[in-house]
Amino acid sequence: MSTSLASQDTGQDTGSVRVTRHLPRFAALGLFVAGVVIGALLTLPSGFSIALTVVYGVVLGTLAVHLVSRSVEGRRKATDRLVTTVVTSAFAIAMVPLVSLIYTVLDNGLGRLDSTFFNSSMLGVIGEGGGAYHAILGTVIITALTALISVPVGMLTAIYLVEYGSGRLRRAITFLVDVMTGIPSIVAGLFAYALFAIFFGTGIRLGIMGAVALSVLMIPVVVRSAEEVLKLVPNELREASYALGVPKWRTVLKVVIPTSIAGLGTGVTLAVARVIGETAPLLVTVGIVTGTNLNPFDGRMATLPVFSYYQLTQPGFPPEFGIDRAWTAALVLIILVMALNVVARLISRLFAPKTGR
Amino acid sequence: MTTTSAPPATPRTKRRVGDRVFAGSATGAGILILIVLAGVAIFLITEAWPAITADSADLPDGKSLASYVAPLIFGTLLAAVIALLVATPLGVAIALYISYYAPKRLAAAMGYVIDLLAAIPSVVYGFWGIAALAPAMVPFYGWAAEHLGWIPFFAGPPSTTGKTMLTAGLVLAVMILPIISAISREVFGQAPALHREAALALGATRWEMIRMAVIPYGKSGVIAGAMLGLGRALGETLAVAIVLSASGGITFNLISSSNPATIAANIALQFPESTGLAVNALIASGLALFVITLAVNVFARWIVTRRAEFSGAN
After folding, report:
1. A248–B268: do the CB atoms touch at under 8 Å?
2. Which ranges of A182-303 does DSSP label H, i.e. alpha helix?
3. Which of A49, B9, B73, B212 is deepest in the core (most CB within 10 A)?
4. Which element (helix H / strand E) includes A71?
């Protein structure tokens, strides 16, 4: 294919006749595939290996495309083709671990995705059976508490930043919210532990501590997204409301927030999706138990991420059952996060303000 | 920016109660954020103080706090730098591919998938690292120790489980890949269409267009994205705790089974079983992590705001 050259006479410059030559449309792809095939053949003597094939193939294929293009199309086109193959290969290589991750979790997790997993706790379970009933409830309770703390604080802060704030305080809060976004999750956990340890003594573990730790992570996310959304509300709406003599707080409550409710809902849902899978802060603040504890103010609780972590690292004997439970818990976590993302999309679709435009 | 500032309130002789309450609570929430952040620093320092002032004999391993934390800081930085070196080029390539190479219809879907991947919990990445990546890397480690052993990074002896610093760095790279590519994609998408079209109209190839119109515009955005990714990689806990076989000490050897731990992973592994002064020492290491990530994030924000000031976008 590469030998059939389509040449056409275009642009005739002063004096010299310039001939622009192109490779046929699928030549680049064909050359690349040829490079990969040669790469595969090269690995055969030392035993076939997929990784080596990919390495050889990408290098040889890229080189082939570049050299042929260079001899036919010239340097500039060749560079362009080189970058195209490099970028595309890099993209393909980057997708490999991501696809592999989804596959691994599905492969290992689907086995125990049964009713027992959702109906029983780990109380008295050694070996087979058992489930994450207690952990799922714990995650729901702690996440709900987190949202209960973070959503009002985050929303009010966003309202302050957009509607009331001015000057140095506003700049300081914006900056600190940015900084807070970057707090490592384990540090948030240590903060909650340190806070409660001062009042209740060392070694304390409570569900509410986990909620406090997660709030430190969730509040900045809520503030950021709510701020962006509130900024989008047109000023004309506010001014129309003021012109009717409506006080500012009622304007915010009855005009600004209803207009932006879809965006606010989406932001909160995505923030919940972010904290629901956090493991590290819960590990140091909430711990783990085998039984069901639904009271976040009394002792340790089980949560899905921590449950999953401990089932993998301390699976008990025989280990395969614990490891299976760990994978299923990880799968449930991914499904939860994905579901929340879909819900967020739906919210922004369904509750979008109905404009006449 | 025109829609951000609320119009000046009409001068009013008497402010309503509702207004005062509402404004007060909004301001209060804003100030609460200041307090929380100050609280994080203060409570961490309070709980770390016993370890900072303690006699070195009382600390875990009977070493001074500095020699306890130093390998941890080294491990944290090493893992994060590996992650950054691997993830930045790939993240930029993903962003370029989605923005300028992929078929338009496919591009939106791929962008959405990448965003979803950013939301996968870190513990799941750890699971994948130990179950899929680490075993897959073992043959490479053997090969590297044999052929590249003269490079200090690959001195060996190679790990037989794959639980090495390089594996941990690669898992972190996969984790921060969506972040870097999302932010890069955003800034690449904002490159002025007129510049791009002008470049193409002058006969530039696609790569020349990207090099002349897109990269200069998006460079600081990419750097900021990489810094945010670095911040996340520094603080990442469980993925490293699961994947890395840590034994302490400072070494540049990336493929052996004795590696320095990272701060976050060390806390996650030691904290549940620790009591007394050991807890304080762990919190002191957490304080160090807090300071490091704070510096990285402030630097990233500084780049972002500097770009916002100089770019013509707003």
Report:
1. no
2. 185-200, 207-232, 235-243, 248-251, 257-276, 280-285
3. B73
4. helix A50-73
Go through the domains of chain A in sequence order and give each one's CATH number: 6-111 (no CATH), 116-350 (1.10.3720.10)
Average pLDDT value over all residues in chain B: 84
pLDDT tens-digit profile of A94-119?
888 888 998 999 999 998 888 888 88
Summarised one tens digit per residue, pLDDT across range A266-285 is 999 999 998 998 999 999 89
Tokens of B128: 């994948």
From the list A160, A175, A216, the residue facing B36 with the nearest CB is A216
DSSP string, A126-174: -SS---SHHHHHHHHHHHHHHHHHHHHHHHHHHHIIIII--HHHHHHHH
Q: Residue A352: beta bridge partners? A: none
Q: Mark the ranges of chain B whose per-residue pLDDT is less than 70.
A: 1-15, 60-62, 307-314
**The predicted structure's pLDDT at residue A35:** 78
What is the spatial distance between Cα A63 and Cα A61, in angstroms, rounded to a whole number?
5
The rounded radius of gyration (Å) of the Cα atoms in chain B is 24
Q: How distant, in Å, are the alpha carbons of A36, A57, A196, A348, B141 from that of A43?
A: 11, 10, 60, 51, 18
Closest partner residue to B205 among A80, A284, A327, by Cβ?
A80
User: Mean pLDDT for chain A?
Assistant: 85
Largest Cα separation within chain A, whole Å, is 92
CATH assignment of B21-310? 1.10.3720.10
Taken as a whole, chain B contains a residue count of: 314
Question: First CA to last CA across chain B, in angstroms?
Answer: 8
With an 8 Å Cβ cutoff, are A98 and B238 in contact? no
Alpha carbon distance A238, A249 (integer Å): 11
* Phi, psi of B192, deg, nearest 5: -55, 130
Contact B6 A190 (CB under 8 A): no
ipTM confidence: 0.84
Question: Closest by alpha carbon to B75, among B174, B145, B166, B177?
Answer: B166
- According to the model, what pLDDT value does residue B13 have? 47
| Residue B177 and residue B91 in contact, taking contact as beta carbons nearer than 8 Å | yes
Cα–Cα dist B260/B245, whole Å: 9
Break chain B into its structural domains and give their ranges.
Answer: 21-310
Phi then psi for residue A96, to 5 deg, are -55, -55
Given a cut of 50, whether residue A341 has pLDDT beyond it is yes
Answering whether pTM is above 0.80, one says: yes
